[in-house]
Specification:
It is built from 7 helices and 23 strands. The protein is of the alpha/beta class. The strands form 8 sheets. Strands 1, 2, 3, 4, 5 and 8 form a 6-stranded mixed sheet that branches. It has a 4-stranded antiparallel sheet with strand order 11-12-13-14. The chain has a 3-stranded parallel sheet with strand order 17-18-21. It starts with 10 loop residues before the first strand and ends with a strand.
Length: 420
């Protein structure tokens, strides 16, 4: 619903319409969550000024979310509703450093039949629903509207599956993110231009090779001690296990080839229609059909899976199986994640390209963050290109997220007065 290949399905609202939509959504958020004036539309003149001066908007988690523009799209399976996308500027929110400038709030609201004028929304705030990546919210929408699986054709059912998965997330990870279940329609949905060489590729450039145990190696047989017991002459048998070179199979080129091959298989099977394919009727109970999707490519966290789904007449979806695709379990591309740092409102964020830094730059950023906690210092999504060794004193808490270290990290003599 929001990957690059889907962008042409969105229409932008003119400023008067965007302002009216924001007003109604603000009323809903105030009523449902007690938050006053969550969103504020950035005036056109201010956006132009910022673009010319290349400056940023000042905002914080306790302030309003500044909205650059509002888009909408029709939903064939919800005939009286629209899906709205609010593009929120987050590049000055310290907690969201390391994500791209715009994050997205999604909400379901009235469709064009409830427009009193071309660009003016009528309707009540109760007609709005903020999508929060939970199945309960989607099931509630199904009950509110005229959702009936029997009234939908196969294409509409496929659109519903993409919608459901796009706005369903897993459990919150340790880094306070929620990963959505993405269904990319083409291989082009992966942002290859913002990838860095994988660790395996860098090892190859440096003349090193990375090995991992073969999957059929017996873990208990690897690195057994081979020294005889004290006072005996008996020699213990041992093994270092078999290993395979990971350098080539983990390269970006190889990962792309595997993904493109998977999409090519789908294209060959259905005459050009890509992921997901049209559903098949599974069973009929009292003349009510349920449907099954086979071989759906699902992007979740850093891996690509081949999954099977079933949908019943109420729109409830079950994932029957999910098999990881070999060679695509460590995708090096920036991820889409959901964060709730601003008033606990769910925002879809897109990671920035991983940034290369030196050890000295990393240590300077940490000290700057400690000295000025509100400063916009990026400590997320970094790659430290050399070993880190320091005996410095860190007077405040240190939090690093999604940081790759290319060499040893030695902190034996460092002093941490708070947490690391």
């Amino acid at each position: 619903m929001y990957l690059p290949s889907d962008e042409n399905n969105w229409e932008v609202l003119k400023p008067p319409g965007a302002a009216a939509v924001i007003e109604k959504l603000n009323e809903h958020v105030k009523s449902a969550r007690g938050i006053n004036s969550l969103l504020e539309l950035i005036p056109l003149w201010q956006r132009l000024f910022q673009a010319i001066t290349k400056s940023s908007f000042n905002t914080s988690p306790s302030a309003k979310l500044l909205v650059e523009c509002v888009h909408y799209r029709e939903l064939s399976f919800y005939p009286s509703k629209r899906l709205y996308r609010f593009s929120c500027v987050i590049d000055k929110i310290e907690e969201l450093a390391g994500y791209q400038k715009l994050a997205y709030l999604f909400a379901i609201g009235p469709d064009k039949q409830n427009l009193s004028e071309e660009d003016n929304i009528s309707g009540k705030s109760s007609e709005w629903t903020v999508l929060d990546w939970t199945s309960a919210t989607i099931f509630s929408l199904n009950k509110q509207g005229e959702f009936e699986i029997s009234k939908l054709n196969q294409k509409q059912i496929r659109d519903y599956l993409v919608f459901f998965c796009s706005f369903l997330g897993g459990d919150m990870d340790e880094d306070d993110t929620i990963a959505p279940f993405l269904i990319p329609s083409t291989a082009a949905d992966f942002n290859w231009k913002d990838t860095l060489p994988t660790l395996e590729e860098i090892a190859g450039i440096q003349g090193l090779r990375i090995f991992s145990p073969e999957s059929n190696s017996e873990p208990s047989a690897i690195d057994k001690p081979d020294l005889p017991a004290t006072g005996t002459q008996e020699t213990m048998s041992g093994s270092v296990g078999k290993a395979k070179d990971r350098s080539d199979e983990s390269s970006i080129k190889k990962i792309r080839e595997i993904i493109e091959s998977e999409f090519s298989k789908l294209k060959a099977r259905e005459g050009g229609t890509l992921n997901p394919q049209l559903p098949e009727i599974e069973t009929k109970t009292n003349q009510v059909a349920s449907y099954r999707f086979s071989d759906v490519l699902v992007w979740y966290r850093n891996a690509l899976f081949r999954a099977q789904f079933s949908i019943n007449h109420q729109g409830q979806i079950a994932m029957l199986s999910d098999d990881p695709i070999e060679g695509v379990t460590k995708l090096p591309v920036p991820r889409w994640v959901v964060r709730k740092d601003v008033h606990f409102i769910p925002l879809l964020c897109h990671e920035q390209k991983r940034e290369n830094v030196t050890a000295q730059e990393l240590l300077e950023r940490i000290q700057k963050r400690i000295a000025a906690p509100a400063s916009h210092v990026r400590l997320r999504g970094l790659r430290v290109m050399e070993g880190v060794k320091t005996s410095a004193e860190f007077a405040g808490p240190v939090r690093l997220e999604n940081v790759e270290f290319m060499d040893d990290v030695i902190l034996d003599d460092a002093i941490f007065k708070h947490s690391l």
